[in-house]
Amino acid sequence: MDLDLGVLIASAERLETALSHVVHPERTLIFLMDDGVCAQEAPRLRALIDAGADVTLCAQDAEARGLHPYDGGPRFGSQYDHARMMRDVGCVVAATHAGTTKSRPQGPRRRIGVTLTGDPKEDPRATVQALRSAVGYLGCELDVRIKLGSRALGLLGDDPPREVLRHLATLRGLGTKIEPLPGAPIDVEVIW
Amino acid sequence: VSATLDLTGEVCPYTFVRTKLRLEELELGEELTVIVDHAPAADNVPRSLRGEGHEVVSVDQQGSRFFIRAIKRKSHRLQGAT
Asked: Which ipTM was obtained for this model?
């Protein structure tokens, strides 16, 4: 089955906007994470599941919010499902609190840009979510670039938040470039 | 030949990433037993293994721990890993 579209929803507020891109549900993967998991019972999402969309959410994020699976609802999965989606689909829509992007990667080895826009000390949650998803991308052998907006440059300093240390160490240990914007060219962009 | 990877206390994405890194060290046909205690990982690690072309032999629960036995069937190399 050709997969036309992958939709990452990391913000429940952006659910409708993100799902407006779905044309062929049966050829669409959808992954919910961060507070996007709170939309797991949204009628529009349920309708897409009924129409054949493959919908998965981050079980860890759901667990943290006290959410449980329900009959006919999204599969409780992992960042592996997220990374596989980024690897396999023809077009990616990524909706987070920071914005929505749409990317059509070309070529056999796609480069994923994870852009951080916020101050990691003021908003460590978004930074943690961005970096853990990037670690997952590495697990699917994707070429990952971490790009830092001006407010996120503190990640390059000597005192990043404790919550992100492991993710940073893992990314660096696996050879991921962490650099100020604009950085190297990418094929898929996710803005956090 | 059999190897063991104890991932008790570990959560996603490190459950599947560390599993994959450990598999890189094995030869095709060798067996890896992964131990997890985060319940979602008991479903998700086997699914990721199958999705990446490996064989999952069994998943057994003992108390709060899950023992996932898999056989390496495909070679991978994570970006930048040496």
From this structure: 0.89
| From A58, A63, A176, residue closest to B80, measured CB to CB | A176
**Catalytic site residues of B?**
12
Please give the Cα distance from B69 to B35 (Å, whole number). Answer: 9
**A131: contact with B, CB 8 A cutoff:** no
Q: Kindly report, residue by residue over B21-74, the tens digit of the pLDDT.
A: 999 999 999 999 999 999 999 999 999 999 999 999 999 999 999 999 999 999
Find chain B residues with C-beta within 8 A of A170's C-beta.
14, 17
Give me the total of CB pairs closer than 8 Å, taking one residue from chain A and one from chain B. Answer: 74
H or E, element range at A94: strand A91-96
Please confirm whether the linkage preceding B13 is cis (ω < 30° from 0): yes
Helices vs strands, H then E, count in chain B: 2, 4
